[in-house]
Structure formats: structure tokens, C-alpha cells
């Protein structure tokens, strides 16, 4: 069977590995409308390497390789049917997916449907199936409630009413998290406990890190463990930074590369008002807000310096977005060394800061809010 790759919008095409006599991933899935699967995968310590493959099925069966034998997170979706809906629209990709961790050199077999499936391939998957089974009582309740609420939304029922109906799900999610947290605590020497940990809330992670044995932390699951640890510590640093990002406090100094690869120092703008715009090409609201920001830039040119700080993009995507949207202000890229978004306590995009001529924080606005431009108007009177 030939495994073809269909790249996401904006990416190129490539040829995927042909299945060998012993494919990494195989199985049978029911309930797929088309004869094709969409497979997203990425190494657990390199999300930027995310790729999307299309895999053909024969009578619901499939077999393929992803190559590059490293620890990977994999999602398998059903590719939408090419047949238009009754209203002529194109069917959307369902968010239902088979989700699993692909272990290096360990084939996995999948059976069931996108709603409910079983993973086979050794003790790791047996252990994970056990966790999933323990959570089923609550996950089924949540699934049923999701169907009810989506139907209410289609009927135009107000959001407040839908939220009231959905309220019990909060307790059920809490029960699922407790089951998973208890599993990690009771099984500190199992590799699967690291994967289960990745599904816990941040509050639960702190205790879980101290439970795992060194063998588990340093073994096959080390890339995932390290990514979680780094992410957890980054979030703690972000929370600490938020407390310091108060009006009147000095804005953290930083140096980042501009479009030409030259250093840009925030201190170089001392004596001027500065707008720092934390954004990304992947952020819909960031892009939507560009026209208004351009108006403000033109309105206050020479009075306010605007600095766009791109976050969570590759260099190519950043430069392409700057060119496509013709961003006229200073543009720099945050590559996380150090992470300027963490230094400024940024947890949502876009986030804008106004820095006064003395280098102190004057204002912070999260999201696209008219209040930001009203503030600039009042500031410049």
C-alpha cells in the first residue's frame, strides 16, 4: 500500500516512508466516511516538526510507517468526504481522533473507532488501556453531554443556557484528572506514567514530578519528561513575571534579532513611548487586529515606536507573515533564549504593552480590544 503525504496549508509536499514488512502503525477503524486517514505526528520534544500524512485504507484497514525512530505524539483523523453537505459547504475535519504515543522501534496496532479504540503493542499500551478504561464512566458522560450541547447550539439556544447544561462536565473532568493523578502516584516506575502525567493539570504536575523514579525520568520517556519539566518551570516563571508587570515598574530589557539578523535592544528606544506587540502568524486575532494597529502606527508616527515581537513561529513563517501583511514597524523574533514572552508574563495573544519614555510599564492589554487604541489617543493628547 502506498503511503502518500498531504502537507498542511502553507507547507510543501514530500514522499513518506513506504510500509515495511513490519509497519510501525497498523489496524482497522470503523465509522470513517472516506477511505483515507489524516495522520498528524511530531517528536515530543520538537512540535515545530509537526507533519501531516494521508494514508489510504482498504476495507477499513491500514498500515504505514512514519520513519525516524524517535518518541512521537500521533493523532489519526478521518479525512472528510469530498461529497458536499446539503447546503453546498465542504465537510469539516472532525476533532475526534485516535491519540497515542509512538514508542521507538515498537509497532502498534489499533482497533475500534475514533470514538472508542484499543491500542496493542506491549505492556506500555496495555497499561494505558487500563487508565482509559478506568476513566470511561466519566468520558462517556462528557461525550454525551457534548452531543446535547452541540445540538442546542445548532438550534440557536443562548450560550448561558448551554453553559448551565454543560456545568456537570467540570466535575467529571476533575474525576478523570484524579484517576490519572492517582495512577501516576501508584505507578512511579512505569513508563506510561510519564504519558499519563502529560494529561494532568499544572497544579497536579508539581507533585507528580517528585513521584517518578529516576529510571523512568532518564529512560525511554526522557524527551517527554524533559519537555513537561521545562514547560512547567516556564509557566512558574511566567506567573512570577506577571506579578512584576505592573504599571510603574521597569519593563524588562531584552535583545532580539530583527528581519536583517541584527540585534535590536529595547533600551535603544529609551526616551520614547513604545508599544510592544506580542503576536504570531498562527494567531487569528493577531492578524485580524493588524489593520487597526497600522492606523495607530500612521497616526502616531514619530511619537510612538511600535515593535512587533513574533512568538512561536519558525523564521520562515515569521518573515513571510511580515511581508504578506506589510508590517511597517520594527519586527523582531522571540526564539526563547531567553523567552521574552515569559519575561513579560505573556499567556495570551495578542498581548500589547505600552512602555513610557523612562522605560516603565504604562499599560497592558490582552486580546484585540478597542480600549488599547482609546488609551493611546488619551496618552497622546
Task: Provide structural commentary.
It is found in: Cell envelope. It comes from Phocaeicola dorei. Keywords: Cytochrome c-type biogenesis, Disulfide bond, Redox-active center. InterPro entries: AhpC/TSA, Thioredoxin-like_sf, Thioredoxin_domain, Thioredoxin_ResA/DsbE_sf. The protein is globular. The model is unreliable at 1-20 (pLDDT under 50). Helix 1 runs antiparallel to helix 2 and helix 1 runs antiparallel to helix 3. It is built from 12 helices and 16 strands. Strands 11-10-14-13-12-15-16 form a 7-stranded mixed beta sheet. Strands 1-4-3-6-7 form a 5-stranded antiparallel beta sheet, with no helix packed on it. With 381 residues, the protein is α+β, with helices and mostly antiparallel strands. The protein has helices at 123-154, 159-166, 168-186, 192-197, 202-209, 214-218, 222-244, 284-288, 290-299, 315-324, 340-343, 370-379, and strands spanning 3-4, 25-30, 36-43, 51-56, 61-64, 72-78, 98-102, 108-113, 117-120, 255-258, 263-265, 273-279, 304-311, 330-334, 351-355, 361-366. The protein has 3 domains: 3-116, Immunoglobulin-like; 125-235, no CATH class; 255-379, Glutaredoxin (3-Layer(aba) Sandwich), CATH 3.40.30. Helix content is 37%, strand content 23%. It starts with a strand and ends with a helix.
